Amino acid sequence: MEGLDPTDQLQAGLMQLLGPVVQTIDTQVAATLQSQETLRAEIEKLQQEIAKFQGPADMPQELEQYVQKLSKSRQQINSINSTLSGLQDRVTRLHQNVARSTKLAQTPAK
């Protein structure tokens, strides 16, 4: 970084600092999305199993409450998945911008 002006040095330093952080966040968001998807699938399986044992007409009140809770949980998980997906998209774009800026900062000016 010796041949760069102070602004370029600052930019290159920030890119070196932020690059790994953005990559870590991206990895963690992806893992969270996968976990949420697994949880959603398990809730759906559980709802299907409950439906097999009890028809809607003869479902005990207690069981119906649990089914409603599961349904609400599934809706919340879908909402969280949507939010996390948007967050992952933003982190990916940020990561691409950091990589692009780092590449530009390392390219000698002509």
Overview of the molecule:
- The two termini are 15 Å apart.
- Helix 1 (6-53) packs antiparallel against helix 2.
- This protein has 110 residues and is mainly alpha-helical.
- Helix content is 85%, strand content 0%.
- The protein is rod-shaped and about 80 Å long.
- The protein has helices at 6-53, 61-106.
Q: Please tell me what the overall shape is.
A: rod-shaped
Helical segment tally? 2
User: Span between N and C termini?
Assistant: 15 Å
How many strand segments? Answer: 0
Strand content: under 5%
Helix content: over 70%
Low-confidence stretches: none
SSE pattern: HH
> What class would the helix/strand composition place it in?
mainly alpha
Q: What integer is the average pLDDT? A: 81
Please give a quick description of this structure:
The protein is an all-alpha fold and 110 residues long. The chain has helices spanning 6-53, 61-106. It contains two helices and no strands.
Sequence-ordered SSE layout with sheet pairings:
Layout: H1 6-53, H2 61-106
Helix pairs in contact: 1-2
Features:
rod-shaped; 110 residues; 2 helices; mainly alpha
